[in-house]
């Protein structure tokens, strides 16, 4: 299910509401959105929750708004300001465009202190709330592109496409550091997760059971192999079947319905996640 998350709700709030609408506890989201953020939340239902890892690995595209002039302790509008406001009198649009372009490529990112990252076995945000100034360990990320959309100091808008695990509010923080002005994120909208677009999503208040899509809808990026009946039965029991052609992750279908995701190689399709029943 593709849901357009409204502002003011946590991703877990969305899952809780969908459990009531769908009448099942087997509901999970892939890729958390902060409460102030909106946009595409990919929600998996029933046996399809096993497909989470194939969705979470996708690159994600965001439309972001940042306020220049000061940073906050959360890197977004919910936090307390850090230091006095900086002057923006000499800041130019060219400065911001160049700083955003410089983010493109692989790099190490320090996650926000108020994040779900673990530090000494505990969530970073819990430590931060208790006043412990801890910084989660930097992680490897990839910024595919970063483009300025609007320059209206102290506010700017930009679009970024980033690898899984990237914090856009940390990008806003680091952008402010590069510009020497400080910055924090004030709005964020997730526009896409891999090939899945928010334009395909249903607003949360309009979700009904009819909005549930076939599991194969989140695997359209994978090559697909149609199984014969005997192969379907074997795969449903978790057994490998011979194959030639693609390598890597493959969606296995029978009569157009997803049976499993398999790992192809050495002439075999080895089921990794089985959804079909014998």
Structure report:
With 278 residues, the chain is of the alpha+beta class. The chain has three domains: 2-58 and 195-216, Pseudouridine synthase (2-Layer Sandwich), CATH 3.30.2350; 60-193, Pseudouridine synthase; 222-274, PUA domain (Archaeosine Trna-guanine Transglycosylase, Chain: A, domain 4, Roll), CATH 2.30.130.10. It is built from six helices and 19 strands.
Shape: elongated
Mean pLDDT: 91
Structural class: alpha+beta
Tell me the CATH superfamily of the largest domain. Answer: Pseudouridine synthase
Provide a brief overview of the structure:
This protein is an alpha+beta fold and 278 residues long. It has helices at 11-22, 52-56, 93-101, 124-129, 168-179, 229-236, and strands spanning 2-5, 27-30, 38-45, 60-68, 71-72, 81-82, 105-109, 118-119, 122-123, 139-152, 155-162, 183-193, 196-197, 202-203, 224-226, 241-242, 248-254, 257-265, 268-274. Strands 1, 2, 3, 4, 7, 10, 11, 12, 13 and 14 form a 10-stranded mixed β-sheet that branches.
């Amino acid at each position: 299910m593709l849901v357009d998350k409204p502002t003011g709700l946590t991703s877990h709030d969305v899952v809780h509401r969908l459990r009531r609408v769908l009448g099942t506890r087997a509901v999970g989201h892939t890729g958390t959105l902060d409460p102030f953020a909106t946009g595409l939340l990919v929600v998996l239902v029933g046996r399809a929750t096993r497909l989470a890892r194939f969705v979470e690995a996708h690159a994600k595209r965001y439309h972001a708004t940042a306020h220049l002039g000061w940073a906050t302790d959360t890197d977004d509008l919910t936090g307390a300001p850090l230091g006095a406001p900086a002057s923006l009198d000499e800041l130019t649009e060219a400065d911001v465009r160049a700083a955003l372009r410089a983010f493109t490529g692989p790099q190490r990112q320090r996650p926000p202190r108020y994040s779900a990252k673990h530090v000494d076995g505990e969530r970073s945000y819990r430590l931060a709330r208790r006043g412990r100034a801890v910084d989660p360990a930097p992680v490897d990320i990839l910024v595919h592109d970063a483009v300025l959309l609007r320059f209206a100091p102290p506010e700017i808008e930009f679009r970024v496409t980033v690898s899984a695990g990237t914090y856009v509010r940390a990008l806003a923080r680091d952008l402010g550091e590069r510009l020497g002005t400080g910055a924090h994120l004030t709005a964020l909208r997730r526009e896409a997760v891999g090939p899945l677009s928010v334009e395909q999503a249903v607003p949360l208040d309009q979700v009904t059971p009819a909005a549930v899509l076939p599991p194969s809808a989140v695997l359209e990026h994978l090559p697909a192999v149609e199984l014969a009946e005997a192969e379907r039965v074997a795969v449903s029991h978790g057994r490998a079947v011979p194959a030639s052609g693609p390598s890597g992750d493959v969606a296995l279908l029978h009569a157009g319905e997803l049976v499993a995701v398999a790992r192809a190689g050495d002439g075999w399709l080895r089921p990794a996640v089985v959804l079909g029943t014998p």
